[in-house]
Amino acid sequence: MAVQSAEEYFAAHPSWESELRELREMLLTTDVEETIKWGAPVYTVNGKNVVSIAAFKNHIGIWFYNGALLKENTALLENAQEGKTKALRQIKFERGQEIPVQELRKYVLEAIQNQKEGREVKPTKPKKVKIPEDILAAFKEDPALEVSFDNLSPGKKREYCEHIDQAKREATKKSRLKKIIPMIMAGQGLHDKYKNC
Asked: What is the pLDDT along the chain (197 residues), one digit of tens a residue?
């Protein structure tokens, strides 16, 4: 059953309930609205995501959706996924670690002010994928392959192109191409088989 409220979320994470409640109480003293997105409490300003909290097995975290824009309060922030996320920043707390609620409140207030001023990290358009010659040649032999490729997401297209480009030897390129053609035709990504493990 999907979580419908912060209370349900806390009940689903009893080992972190007191810490989550502490963060929530601090957040609700600010100018945010509480909602549930992606199964966890998210705090918004004018319908825009500002902060969220979440519990995991070994830590809890507070996320700042445009945390990269924080100037005054940055000491505790970490990039959520180095090299991948441009805007999202997080602060993690492990079991037994004290949560500096008053210090965190400063981070939240700055994030709220940024949102009210319309400051956001705009997503960048992904670079156009350069399709390797080997794949283009395969399109000429089988037009249905090109249609299937065109229907893939930009990320899946990029994975396949890089997979072929990274092969040094021509024989390796041909071998890789032979393996990926059925996957492309099935609409799968190169790494899909690992995603649900």
From this structure: 578 899 999 999 999 999 999 999 999 999 999 999 989 999 999 999 999 999 999 999 999 999 989 898 888 888 877 777 788 899 999 998 999 999 999 999 999 999 999 888 777 666 677 899 999 999 999 989 999 999 998 888 989 999 999 999 999 999 999 999 999 999 988 877 665 43
Alpha carbon distances (Å) from 70 to 16, 21, 75, 119, 196: 27, 24, 10, 10, 35
Look at residue 10 and tell me if it is in a domain: yes
Do 186 and 112 share a structural domain?
Answer: no
pTM tops 0.85, yes or no: no
Question: 96 with 152, same domain?
Answer: no
Domain, as residue range, for 157? 133-195
End-to-end CA distance of the chain: 21
Phi, psi angle pair for 28, to nearest 5°: -75, -5
26 in the same domain as 90: yes
110 lies in the same domain as 143: no
